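Long-time lurker, finally posting.

We've been working with DMSO/TMAO reductase YedYZ molybdopterin-dependent catalytic subunit (Micromonospora pisi) and I want a structural starting point before designing mutants. I don't trust myself to interpret raw outputs, so I'm hoping someone here can both generate the C-alpha cells and explain anything notable. Sequence follows.
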Amino acid sequence: MGIVSPGFQGRPRSSQPSLPPGQYLTEDFPVLSAGPTPRVSLDNWEFVVTTEAGAEHRWSWSEMLALPNETPTVDIHCVTRWSKLQTNWKGVSLDTLLAEVETAADYALVHSYGGYTTNLPLEDLLDGQAWLVHQYEGGELPAEHGGPARLLVPHLYFWKSAKWVRGIQLMLTDEPGFWETAGYHDYGDPWREQRYQGD
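Top reply, 14 upvotes:
Generated this for you. Predicted structure of DMSO/TMAO reductase YedYZ molybdopterin-dependent catalytic subunit:
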C-alpha cells in the first residue's frame, strides 16, 4: 500500500507574496512627505559626503550621472503599512560614492533639501544595500517621489530612503533624524515591525 494517495499534490502554494508583518500590497505609489516638495535646480544640485573629521566629498549633478549606474529591482515597505513589490530604479551605489572616503564613522545622518534628516548605521549603506537613485520605472524620478535624486535603502522602512537627498554626514555616534526624534524607531526593520521606539 502506497504512503501517498493517488492525486495528492501536497499543500497548495500561496499566491500571495511574502510581505513583512502588518503590511498590505499596493499597486500604486502613495505620496507621503513631512513637508512641501522642494524644487531643486539641477544646475545648483550637489551631493556632499562629510566625514567626522570635516572632510567634504562633492558631486555635481553631471558628475553624479557620470559615475557607474546600477538598476536595482527591489521591494519597498512604508511604515504606514503599504508594500510595493518589484520596483525598478536607476542610480549610483553608495559603495561607489563612499569608495574613496576615509572614515572611522559607524553612523550616517542623511540630509535632504527642505531640511529633512534620517539616521542609519553606516554598514546599512554599504555592500550593495543602498543607492542614490535618479530614475524610477525607466523615467526621471518625479519630484513628489524625491526627484531629482533620493536615497534608496529598501531593506528598511521607506522613511529611511530620504527624498531630495543632498548629503550624508558621517558620525562616530548616532544622532536621531526628523521622524526618529518624533518617536519612530532608530533602525526601522520592516520584518521586525520596528515602527516606533520600543518596538
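Before you design anything, note these points.
The longest helix spans residues 61-65.
Residues 40-192 form a domain with the Sulfite Oxidase; Chain A, domain 2 fold (CATH 3.90.420.10).
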